[in-house]
């Protein structure tokens, strides 16, 4: 059976990039407000404690208590506040992407009233391509792995400590090293989330709502089907053929796939094919009919219709818009 790496495929296709903003030294009382943005923020606590409050969005999220050695990620971005204590009355220090330390210097930001100290590192992940796919879209608003959690694991704990150590003692090449470590941090945190949600689903009763998304990768049948679709997007897959490949009946496979992934097998397949096509339109000079063939469409017109439905514009317009953005980004600044 094909052994495609679904998470690596998705992160490559959405053009993940990491940025470590720097090290923050805060002394109680303190508070830091971060405005809403489309980036995927993360924080690592080196010492002390903090409270994280999400201040945007329609769903109320309970404040999260953070301690030394913890990592917390905000997969959907959004405005939030970090503070020294749950009911701290400190005036919030406004911090945005433009006021954070430059990642090339790892400069330390200091704030607060001189009391008990908390040290943390802040960073973010950005996606250079639109459309994260349902496996990332279904991540929770807050992904918190505490230092004392059984599922922290030695690898994730070591990565956290390496990032913290690099921020405390910047050296040549530190920006690149921190960026790569942050990417490793994300993959390891996603693995923890995958295991957690799959185990929670297994322990839940039939009448309890099940988590969806990356937990599907831990299911032996649905994970295998996802890997097949990623490895061989051009195959003429049907629900029946996928079910046969993974050793399930058609009805059982379709129900389980929708339960864990959040959409039907063929809906997922179409979205993945269009994600792959978008990547090739950006990165290669292949013709639209050639790309259509590579993602399983013998009819270019049918491919263009599907691409427009998923991406919001036709493949030709998508490629031109991407090239225009590249030209705009490479143009010298007038400032």
UniProtKB/TrEMBL annotation:
Matching InterPro entries: AraC_lig (IPR032783), AraC_XylS_family_regulators (IPR050204), Homeodomain-like_sf (IPR009057), HTH_AraC (IPR018060)
GO molecular function: DNA-binding transcription factor activity; sequence-specific DNA binding
Superkingdom, taxonomy of origin: Bacteria
SUPFAM superfamilies: Homeodomain-like
Residue ranges that the Swiss-Prot or TrEMBL entry lists as coiled coil: none
Domain HTH araC/xylS-type: 223-321
Protein name listed in UniProt: AraC family transcriptional regulator
Species lineage: Bacteria, Pseudomonadati, Gemmatimonadota, Gemmatimonadia, Gemmatimonadales
């Amino acid at each position: 059976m094909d052994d495609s790496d679904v998470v690596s495929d998705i992160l490559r296709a959405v053009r993940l990039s990491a940025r470590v903003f720097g090290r923050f030294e805060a002394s109680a009382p303190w508070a830091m407000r971060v405005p809403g943005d489309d980036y995927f923020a993360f924080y690592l606590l080196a010492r002390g404690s903090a409270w994280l409050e999400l201040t945007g969005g329609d769903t109320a999220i309970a404040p999260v208590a953070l301690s030394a050695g913890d990592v917390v990620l905000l997969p959907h971005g959004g405005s939030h506040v970090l503070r020294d204590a749950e009911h701290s009355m400190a005036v919030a220090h406004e911090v945005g992407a433009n006021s954070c330390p430059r990642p090339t210097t790892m400069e330390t930001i200091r704030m607060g009233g001189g009391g008990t100290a908390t040290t943390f590192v802040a960073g973010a992940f950005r996606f250079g391509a639109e459309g994260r796919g349902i496996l990332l879209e279904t991540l929770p608003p807050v992904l918190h792995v505490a230092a004392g959690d059984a599922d922290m694991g030695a690898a994730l704990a070591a990565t956290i400590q390496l990032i913290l150590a690099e921020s405390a003692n910047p050296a040549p090449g530190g920006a690149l090293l921190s960026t790569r470590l942050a990417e490793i941090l994300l993959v390891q945190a996603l693995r923890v989330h995958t295991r957690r949600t799959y185990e929670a689903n297994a322990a839940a009763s039939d009448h309890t709502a099940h988590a969806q998304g990356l937990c599907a990768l831990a299911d032996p049948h649905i994970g295998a089907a996802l890997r097949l679709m990623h490895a061989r997007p051009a195959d003429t897959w049907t629900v029946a053929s996928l079910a046969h490949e993974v050793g399930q009946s058609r009805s059982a496979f379709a129900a389980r796939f929708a339960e864990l992934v959040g959409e039907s097998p063929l809906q997922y397949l179409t979205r993945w094919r269009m994600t792959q096509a978008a990547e090739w339109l950006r990165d290669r000079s292949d013709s639209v009919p050639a790309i259509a063939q590579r993602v399983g469409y013998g009819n270019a017109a049918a491919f263009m219709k599907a691409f427009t439905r998923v991406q919001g514009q036709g493949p030709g317009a998508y490629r031109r818009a991407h090239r225009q953005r590249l030209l705009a980004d490479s143009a010298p600044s007038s400032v």
